[in-house]
## 1
Amino acid sequence: MSEIREFSTPDTPEFSIRIPDTSKPRVILIGGGFGGAQFVKSLSDRDFQLVMFDRHNYHTFQPLLYQVATAGLEPDSIAAPLRKIFDNKKNFYFRMALVNKIVPEQNCIQTSIGNIRYDILVISTGSRTNYFGNDELIKKCFPLKQVPQALDMRSQILQNMEKAVLTNDLRIQEGLLNYVVVGGGPTGVELAGSIAELKRHIFPKDYPELDLKRMNIYLVEGSPKLLGAMSEKSSKWALKYLQEMGVTVVLNSVVQSYDGETVYLKNGSTIRSKTLIWAAGVKGNVVPGLKEECLQKGSRILVDEFNRATCYENIYAIGDVAAMITEQYKQGYPMLAPVAKQQGERLALNLNDQVRGRNWKPFKYNDRGSMATIGRNKAVADLPGGFFLKGFLAWAAWMLVHVLFLIGFRSKLIVMANWIWSYLTYDKGTRLIIRPYVKPNNPAAEEPLPKEVAAHTPGAEKTAATSAR
Ligand SMILES: Cc1cc2nc3c(=O)[nH]c(=O)nc-3n(C[C@H](O)[C@H](O)[C@H](O)COP(=O)(O)OP(=O)(O)OC[C@H]3O[C@@H](n4cnc5c(N)ncnc54)[C@H](O)[C@@H]3O)c2cc1C
């Protein structure tokens, strides 16, 4: 076996990872999302040296990405700098880098800035958009997993409007003004509702020359109902609200192909649209290097009740990328922020306990319910104990929960101020084309993966968990 040394990148020998040697166990964490951030907060900095890698220098609050994409919030209010979040942590090092490969036989990871050894590895790399093997869609539609993608979508929506005022050709206008959102989970429902609100409250003021009756928003869902992971009541009310807002909901239909101009549905119908938004599924974002038998259909890392990867002693996975199979969750826990946070916390507390000679506790999910917002005063919430909320109450509860979950007082304040302003004025403040979206080379359509990563993440099958969002 060849020796893997910690080294600098060959093309930039003057730069290296620069983590000091330590007598404490070195924990390497990949990913500063919900799971990773909670893990850092809960791990004792007296007992471990903790090194976090993330390809971005910020934590993304994904549940509000759709508001950035539809000009409701600035990106800065839903992203928090990772160095700032953990500036009071000792023995903590952050490195902005892409982790390309895990080499478990040598307790080492390979990154875009060099290699480094670990004593304990925690993988919290989240999930990525699942196109179910339809490569053509990757190039032409808009996913929503990252801030740059949300900004691209915002630019595209506004550029469509700016172009639409320049033509009398109704066929061209149709393509510019029509939106097709694929996937009737919370993300698809929230996006469709939010675009419908732009049409209703914002665009009539901004584009009085346009006949907005010609603007159509379609929500296409493969199953017979919306919000499949939520209660029957939530599904029905979401459908009712969307229809009231003028969204055309197409159930039992899947998108077969898209050429950038026309969306072809499997049932034979077609929709002219320049903007196809893909919210139909996600799959685990697995870094290559782990044994195949350690993975669930190649798309999530199989873990035991302590989040330990099944094939390894010192590798753990938390959050979206981890598949912890239980009696109740046969495909693993749903890909949700509270699951990731709770797993991050439990794992950190177990590692702290281990140092003190205490036994590990298995992970137990505390499910506090789920919510989806459709529009102004329109939301649904399934609460513990079978309680159901809808309308203004659910909408207010949704806002409160999201503000509380946001990281940092500044973000909470800005988001709240934006929402109050929008509520009172029916306005949205961020209708800016700062970075014009350029087709066909959509740089953020899907972050290019290293070859090995791409080979490792085929179109995974849709599971109950992956279809949850
Ligand atoms: C649009 C949208 C809306 C959502 N809404 C909700 C909601 O309302 N409620 C809810 O509970 N959940 C929601 N979710 C799901 C929720 O965001 C995820 O379940 C949660 O983010 C999972 O946390 P995580 O730590 O596993 O991964 P993430 O939060 O995705 O974090 C993964 C991190 O790993 C980094 N990373 C990945 N690969 C690498 C690599 N190779 N090298 C270096 N860094 C890497 C990424 O940059 C990222 O920072 C939503 C998701 C999306 C996309």
## 2
Amino acid sequence: MFNCIELACFTVGLSCILGKLPLIIIITIIVVALRILKLLINPFIKTKATTKRYGEKSYAVITGGANGIGEAMARELANRNFNLVLIDLDQKRLVEVSKSIQEKNKVAVLTIVYDFGKETTPTSFEKLTQKFSDLDVSILINNVGVCNPANLFAEIETKRACLELLVNCYPVVMLSKFMIERLRQRYQQNKKRSLIMNVASTCGIMYQPYCANYCGTKVFTKRFSQSLYYELNDGISGIDVVTLAPSSVSTNLSKLQEGFAVISPQMCAIGALNNITAFEQNGGWQHEILAFFIRLWLVDFLPRQIAGSITLKLGQILRIVQQKAK
Ligand SMILES: NC(=O)c1ccc[n+]([C@@H]2O[C@H](COP(=O)([O-])OP(=O)(O)OC[C@H]3O[C@@H](n4cnc5c(N)ncnc54)[C@H](OP(=O)(O)O)[C@@H]3O)[C@@H](O)[C@H]2O)c1
């Protein structure tokens, strides 16, 4: 709704660009006010992921579910009585997480060791989904991701650049491919809704020198996910598709300490799972505000040259900080 109003305001503004500067200022204020209003009313129009919506005793499949955001999603979904399928590379950690969840919650947890960087053929993905073909899966969280240390793209090892593409993009596409028909049938036969959550990043809002490859993978995820949102919002599939685009979260991947702008994985998971019918969301109110300002200043208002040199500087600082932390 707001995007249409914003577009209309900008169109009127542009048509008055010559000679009517005050009108443009008024329109700009209206646009900013509408965005702030959207930010403020958001908390009151959110839908939560519950077994009431997606089916009692149904399962949530989470890739990269042994650590970080994936693990936090698993724990939060178990608190909401969902059974779990956790897929990850890290066998030891999978066992630990599964055990600790089952000690706390009366849910079933199936763990699958799978290397998304190596098992990349359609057949291997089909075999992976067959491992839980007898379970009533209602939620797919395409979370797994890797991020190379900040560096100039030309200096990144080719195999590391490839790994980032394989792990960050391929599972999102392949698991959606093999699961959508199943989820659709679930709705058509039993009127049970499902959810696909795709984890992108705030990085996908704009270009990010020194993280070019990672940034590209996240834009891929974001646009893929947003396109699916419209394709599956057809009244016959019963599948909610949400794009989660967090900013910094304190995990092994970011190696950042928790603070105001760096949220905990728990906070990210709760924020994300409490807002599952959004077109795109950021997983926590701090990140909603951050994304709001990134869009407003860096994307919309600042000239590209200035915004570009800011992001370039940020990338250089990130590289220095990461090198010092080694
Ligand atoms: N943390 C952030 O600041 C942040 C911000 C925005 C978006 N995100 C996105 O959020 C998602 C989760 O990130 P996170 O921070 O939670 O990362 P994380 O703490 O590193 O957790 C990712 C999990 O995925 C596993 N994994 C990595 N490579 C794999 C592979 N080839 N096959 C199977 N499993 C693999 C990891 O196992 P190992 O531990 O054994 O590697 C780990 O258990 C990613 O898509 C990331 O891009 C993160």
## 3
Amino acid sequence: MAELTPNERARRLAAGAGADRLPCVPIVGNTAARVIGCRVRELRYDAALLANAQVAAYREFGYDNIRIFTDLYTSAEAMGAKVYAPADETAYLALPAIQEPGQIDTLRPADPQRDGILPLQLEALRRALDAVGDEVPVTAALTGPFTVASFLVGAETLTRLVLRAPSAARRLCDVALETTLRLAAAIMDSGGTPSLTDAMSSSTVISPRTFEQFSLPGLRTLVEYIHGRGKKVTLHICGKTQPIWPLMVATGADCLSLDNDASLATAKTAVGDRVKLMGNVHPAAVMLQGTPLTVRAAVREVVAAAGDSPKGLIVASGCSLPTETPFENIRAMLDAVREIGFPVNRENLPETHALAGKIPNSKFQVNRNTQIPNSKPTLNYPGAPRHPFTEGELAHARKFAVREESTRTHTNPFPTCSRVSDSPSVKGWPRSGRGSSAFDAAAHETPNHPGAAGEGAV
Ligand SMILES: [Zn+2]
């Protein structure tokens, strides 16, 4: 079968009509800047450039979904949080919108047509839709309400509120939800699909009970609203999610985008009959640090694990690709999926077992629960004098700084996985694993975050 456009492929797969290959979404974020040779910060403040970069990346690699995205902080920023955008790295949260829980009731939902850079993101969405919307789904990143809430007040404070002042935490989540609902509406008014990502709802960050009480209600409302407007929803949550898979399904999402911490084979058995699965090649150890050979082996592993998932599979990276991911590795992901074809025949996956244990960085060797080899957590705040904030502000910001797990084999020190640091312990969670702090155990979100696939991929 000749190569289909992503829209044709999605339509045919949804209709059970077969296709040329499985859908494939290497989750390209700011790597798009490299495709057109501009700096990462330029994408954040120039709608035309952002659209051009994402369209050019799609044309370069031929994947199945475009996502308009710069970083996770745009909604919180539109409500008053301060974001620092280094010249050529993904932006990060510098200060939450409020410094004290007592200020929660001063927060107002954002107006996506006016506040922060949300209008720019919407303009970029419209430009990308005009350029290639007839052939590929174009989505726009929508950060989940709980994650927005944590950026509004700081992760540490939100943790404290959840434990000691749940009603205040709920009011915070509610005002965050209102912003996300307005942004979802604006995205759909523009003709796009919201791409829902909720990093701080990860089970490496909060307990399933906290998820159920503080994150699930907002997600459910959001998904219901998006469904009401005729769009499907992919929900991406980073890091560990197995304890909350049934709750993620309970949000009503049509597709779960899972990180490399998850076993797709287990997910297939647990929830594959209810939702489509998307994932989960390691964005750093394989996509950034690996070779085309490694990438191909990892793709084959993913397809061997869940290529027969009842509701379908989208081959993807587990999270947003680090900015400096080699182009040849992105191409290798698409090539591997093309070679495997459709329908997937397990006999088409001979390398999976033959190569087990022989490929550097293969997930056959990297324990899913271990961190990326040779990486060291580094503060996202270099303390460099180029920031627009005072030292006092920065010192405060460090309390909830998102830490990045640098993979350091390429020049970009800000690749995929991050951590929220210096946060208080939460009794009883996580039950095992690294550290006693709920926020210490690899939040594994990238500022470079994915956002998952939208309607066409679902
Ligand atoms: Zn992620």
